[in-house]
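User: Could you check the structure of this?
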Amino acid sequence: MGIKVHNSLTRRKEEFIPIEAGRVRMYVCGPTVYDLSHIGHARSAIAFDVIYRYLRYRGYSVTYARNYTDVDDKIIDRARKEGATTEEVSERYIKAYDEDMEALGVRLPTHRPRATETIPEMIEAIKGLIEKGYAYVVDGDVYYSVRRFREYGKLSGKNTEELEAGARVEVDERKEDPLDFALWKKGKPEEPWWPSPWGRGRPGWHIECSAMCIKYLGETIDIHGGGKDLIFPHHENEIAQSEALTGKPFARYWLHNGFVNIEKEKMSKSLGNILTIRDALMLHTPESIRLFVLSSHYRSPVEYSHTTLKEAEAKAERFYRTMLRIKNMFPRALEGSPPEDRLAERLKPFMAAMDDDFNTALTIGLMFEEVSRANRLLDSAPTGRPEEVEEELTTIAGLFKELSGILGVFERWPEAYFNDLKSHAPIPAEEITALIKEREEARRRRDYARADAIRDELREKGIVLEDTPEGTRWFVK
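Assistant: Sure, the predicted structure tokens are below.
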């Protein structure tokens, strides 16, 4: 059984067969760097990070490009409002995006091209489209002639008649057709510009991704990805201009992740419910954000709310508590490795889930079935056969090691996870320690009412106590 993916181009699930055996070329649209990135950007980055990780895990050599759009109307507007240069704005938000991705455990792609570094290739592509009759020049602007590309709409399912009748297209009387879009924009005062055969100007958004993709990955790639909001017009226009230029299919498989809704409403600036990654990281651990994203299939919409993130945090806590139990009772289970044939057999249902269009939601569900199994084994250890329990726990720990590298969650030692939570405790650690000591003294005096009151007081503040033979431990809930 091979990997199957849902191809947005054909609207069905297909077996994934790369152009070149053993090699995958993947391009994903990155951010337009004019502001802090939001939780929707995080959803896309994490989804394709896992696809990247899994393809590599399956033995493919993956060349992965994710771009920065660093010349755009929005960047120009932000620079004008701030009295800054477009370079200063884009540099600031590229740096912020990279920091956010690092915090979320998103691995670096092979290439991270910037639009401004690929201007010569864009100019050559536009020249080629003009020569082939797919583009025309009007007073320093260059437009793509949509109706010349007969397959326009094959990705989005839209046709030119419907678009002309009801599309929200800016009226520009200089265009031959209202559907045509800009490949090159004539330079305006105080805007960034580059020299071109049509005069000073800058590229349009859509040609940027085509040029960067072709430069770094070739004229036909295996996977092109991004959010569902990019299907039209961005990805549709990428297909039109790229295939008109090269005469070849642009991408064999188109993958699109679903939206993030905030408290049951689509996230949008008009609603004022944009949640930046920075804000999310102030409220939740990076691991819980990743777990929240991966607990739904990448093509499905996800509902961000305080409740859903708390559920993700509870999952992470349950996992690490289980690992801590294993470490305390059977430390060799975390240090050893199970036989390869046994591990391969136990991994089959997990690989089947990931092979089925990268179903991380099912994979995580199966992982927590193993968490439950581990806890049952630990509960039975005092009356069972310790050798058999340790052997099975070693296998379960081996499963977790394999899967954590694919998903980018549960990669830390349990002590590191809980110590990190402690550093974000709602009350000072010294105060918690003092209350625990007071509780121990109350228990020695058999003042159980006071001991229980201290435990309840800490619980209300988000601190959970756990009594063990080695003493009382505390955790941030």
